[in-house]
Amino acid sequence: TLVSYLNKVVPWSVGRASHILADSEATKVDLIDLWAVPADKITVLLSGVDEVFRPVTDERRLRQVRARYGLGEAPYLLAVGTVQPRKNYQMLIRALRPVAANWPHNLVIAGGKGWLYDDILAEVEAQGLADRVIFTGFVDDGDLPALYTDATLSLMPSLYEGFGIPLLEAMACGVPIMAANVSSLPEVAGAAGLLLPPADEAAWSGAIHRLLLSRERRLEMVAAGFHQARTFTWRRAAR
């Protein structure tokens, strides 16, 4: 399996390397804790966000992307990432149920199928949300800015992330972000994101509800997100 392969190859590679670039402080801590890598052997090199990620103002483009992925006319909450257990989509789907009872927003999950995909589909059926959760499958990079721009909120409840580029992309496109308060995600979100425990579905439901109620709070988060995203550039990483 992939796990057994990685458990062999990664420690060997880490031990053989003369120096290691970690994509976050959280990954650096993991390297030290899991494989006793000396701290001075690791440099944290944060990722950037591509300049194509900015708000899409062309209404025709927004409609085209909605049509391409079957999103209809309803407003939506967006989660971007491969459909697999690490992304914690089952919790998010459960958290959506009370939200869907009071709001017209659908949940759009944009990403290719990963392992245990069927369990996530089964959760949709169990919650009676088959008509409120949309799986787009793989999304072309060129369509992502429009997909982000049209979202009301961008959600990343992952149990673990080495970095979390979708948070940067969403902020750069002017979308308020919510994320799990674990691993690298607080580093990426900074003060711009609403951070919540990844297992607390009631907290996620309540927070989504409150943000949908407050356009003023969402606009504050958008402004903070633009500022946060500007601190992550590939030029800075290259330097």
Word description of this protein:
With 239 residues, the protein is α/β, with parallel strands linked by helices. The protein is 46% helix and 13% strand. β3, α4 and β4 form a beta-alpha-beta unit. α4 runs parallel beside α5, α4 packs across α9 and α7 crosses α10. The longest helix is centred in the N-terminal third of the chain and has 15 residues. The radius of gyration is 18 Å and the shape is globular.
Uncertain residue ranges = none
Major sheet: size, sense and barrel closure? 6 strands, parallel
What portion of residues is helical? 40-55%
Strand content: 5-15%
Shape: globular
- Across the major sheet, the strand order is 5-4-3-6-7-8
Q: Report how far the terminal alpha carbons are from each other.
A: 38 Å
Taken in chain order, the helices and strands follow as: HEHEHEHEHEHEHEHEHHH
Estimated radius of gyration: 18 Å
- Mean pLDDT across residues: 96
By secondary-structure content and strand pairing, the structural class works out as alpha/beta
Count of individual beta strands = 8
- Give me the number of helical elements: 11
Short account of what is shown:
The protein has 239 residues and is an alpha/beta fold.
Features of the shown structure:
single chain; 239 residues; alpha/beta; six-stranded parallel β-sheet
Write the layout of secondary structure elements.
Layout: H1 2-16, E1 20-22, H2 25-35, E2 42-44, H3 59-68, E3 76-80, H4 89-100, E4 106-110, H5 117-126, E5 133-137, H6 144-149, E6 153-156, H7 165-172, E7 177-180, H8 185-189, E8 194-196, H9 201-213, H10 215-229, H11 234-238
Parallel strand pairs: 1-2, 3-4, 3-6, 4-5, 6-7, 7-8
Helix pairs in contact: 4-5, 4-9, 7-10
